[in-house]
Amino acid sequence: MGQFKVLIAGGSLVGLTLALALEHAGIEYELFEKGDFAPQLGASIGLHPHSLRILEQLGVWKDIEKEIVPLRHRLHFDGDGRCFEDSTVLKHIQEILGRPIIFMERCKALEILHSHIKDKSKLHDRNAITSYEETDEGVVITTQDGLTHHGHILIGADGIHSRVRDLMAKEIGKTNVALSQDITEGAFTSEYKCIFAVSRNDPAKPFMADATVHNVYYDNHSAIAASGVPGLVFWFLFVKTPLTRTPNCPRFTEDDADAVIEEYRTVSPGPGYTVKDLWDARVKGTLAPLEEGVLKQWSHNRVLLMGDAIHKVTINPGLGGNLAYEGIARFTNGLVSLLTETPTPSQSQLTELFARFDEGQRPRAEMVNNLSGQITRYEAQDTWFLKFASRHLSPWVSDKLKAKAYAAFSKKGPCLEYLPLPEADLAKRMATEDGEIQGMSLATILGGVTVATGLISVLWQTYRSNI
Predict the structure, then answer these.
(1) What angle do CA 241, 245, 249 make, to 5 degrees?
(2) Dist. CA 270–CA 223, nearest whole Å
(3) Which of 76, 141, 254, 458 has its CA 20 to 30 A from that of 32?
(4) Residue 198: in which H helix or E strand, if any?
(5) Which pairing describes strands 83-87 and 102-105: parallel, antiparallel, or unpaired?
(6) Where would one find the signal peptide in this protein (predicted)?
(7) What is the location of CATH 3.50.50.60 in the chain?
(8) For residue range 293-309, what is the model confidence (pLDDT) as tens digits?
(9) Could you tell me if 279 and 251 are in contact, meaning their C-beta atoms sit under 8 angstroms apart?
C-alpha cells in the first residue's frame, strides 16, 4: 500500500490537532469531517498549561495568544451573592508553570488549527465516513460521497456520538456480543444538563472585568462565567437531572434551553447580572447533557478511538479537551517511534501500539473523569459535606498550595517527544520548583486540579475514609 497512512474521522479540535501533529511528524493522513471546518457551533474551549505546551510545539500558541486574556482572578459566591472566596490561584498557576489557563471561542480555536495545516488537500469537509472494511494490509473506508479511501489505520476522533465507535462495536459484535453492548449501551451516564453560551461583554457596561472567573453555588445547580477574550463572556449553567445512560441521554431543543433560562433566570454568577441577562446578550448558546464515563474498549484490529469517543467528562474544571490533547501526544509519540523502527508495521505491532496507548491514557482518563464528576457535584452542593467544604474549608487552603498541587497534575501531561521543547521548558525540564511538594499522593493531586476548589477532593476522601 505504500507509505503508512492514517485515516481520521472527525475534524473538530481532536481531529485537526491530530492532523497537525501527524503533519509535523511527516506521517501521511487524510481527514474526513461530516460538516464544515470551524463551524459557528459549540461555545468555548478551556485550555490548560500542558495543552498549551503541545500547541506551542505545533506552532499554534502565538496565534491563540493574540485572541485571549489569560485568566488571573477567581471569585466564588453563594446563592445570596456573598463572596466567600476571593482567589488568585490562577495567577499562581501561571507563575509556577509559565503558562496560563485560558478560555476562547471553540470556532476560533478550530479556525487557527485549520490555518496551520499546510496541505489542505488532505482535509475533506462535508464528507463523513459511512463504513469501513479491514483487509490484511490495512483498512478501506467508504465516505458519504460514495468513494473509497485506503489507509493502514482508522482513528475515530468523531466525538461523543461517534459513528466510528458504532461501526467498531458492530464489528466486535460478530465475535463478542457482550463487549459490543458495553460499548453501545450504557457506556456513558448523564446526571446534569448544561447551558453552554457565549455572550457579549459590552466594554461600556461589562458584566465582569477581563481575566476574571465567577463561580456561584446553589443547591443542585451552579454557574460559571469567564471573561477570557476581550468583549466576550463564556458561561455555563449546570442543573442536576435524573440519571440517564447512553444511548438514552436526552437531546434538547432551543425551546428546552429557553425554558431552563426562564426557570433559573435569577441565578447570578457574579454581582450585578443574571443568567437571563447573559442569555439576552448571547452570541450563541445551547443546552446539552453532561455525559461522563470511560469506555471499556478503545480499539479493535486497525481501528482506534480518541477524545470524547472514549472518555467524556463533566466540564466544570475544564479538563475534557485537555485530556484529549494528552491522548494525541501519547498516540503520536508511540506511532512515530514505531514507524521509525518499522515503516510498515504488522497487525500485531499495531495492536501493541494501541494497547500501550490504552495503558498510558486510561489511568489519566479515569482520574480526570472521577475528579470532574466530584467538582460538578461540589459546585452544585450535592451533599451537605460538599456544601460545608465549599463554604468553610476551601477558603482556608492557601492559593499557593492549591496552585502547587495543580502544577503537579499538569506537569504529568505528555508533550510531543518528536518535536523540540519550547526554550522555557528546556531550561527547567529537570528542575524542581522551590518548595514544591514532593511525593504527592494521588488524592492531593486530584484536589489541586480543581483550581477553584483547591484540596476539597482530598478532604472529601479523608472524610469518607473515616466514616
Answers:
(1) 60
(2) 9
(3) 254
(4) strand 189-200
(5) unpaired
(6) 1-19
(7) 5-37+109-187+294-377
(8) 999 999 999 999 999 99
(9) no
Q: Using CA atoms, how far apart are residues 396 and 373, in angstroms rounded to an integer?
A: 23
Q: What is the pLDDT of residues 71-122, one digit of tens each?
A: 999 999 999 999 999 999 999 999 999 999 999 999 999 999 999 999 999 9
DSSP H or E segment with residue 62: helix 61-65
Answer left, alpha or beta for residue 211, where phi above 0 means left and psi between -120 and 50 means alpha: left
**CA-to-CA dists, residue 211 to 96, 310, 439, 452, angstroms:** 18, 32, 32, 14
> Phi and psi dihedrals of 312, rounded to 5?
-125, 125
432 exposed, middle or buried (CB, 10 Å; 0-12, 13-18, 19+)? Answer: exposed
Burial class (CB in 10 A: 0-12, 13-18, 19+), 184: middle
Strand 83-87 versus strand 73-78 pairing type:
antiparallel
273 secondary structure, DSSP code = B
CA atoms within 13 A on the CB side of 166: 11
| Element spanning 27, H or E | none
State the pairing for strand pair 282-294/189-200: antiparallel
> Does the predicted TM-score (pTM) go above 0.90?
yes
Q: Does domain 5-37+109-187+294-377 have CATH number 3.50.50.60?
A: yes
Nearest 5°: the CA angle 457, 443, 410 is 95
d(CA 373, CA 397) in angstroms, rounded, equals: 21
Cell of 287: 443546552
Residue 140: name the closest of 302, 354, 27, 250 by CA: 302
Rounded alpha-carbon distances, angstroms, from residue 289 to 3, 240, 249, 401, 435: 42, 10, 7, 33, 41
Contact assessment for residue 100 and residue 49, using Cβ atoms and an 8 Å cutoff: yes
Cα 288 to Cα 256: distance, rounded to the nearest angstrom: 10
Please say whether the beta carbons of 181 and 166 come within 8 A.
no
Cβ atoms of 271 and 219 within 8 Å: the answer is no
Specify the residue for cell string 477570557: 228
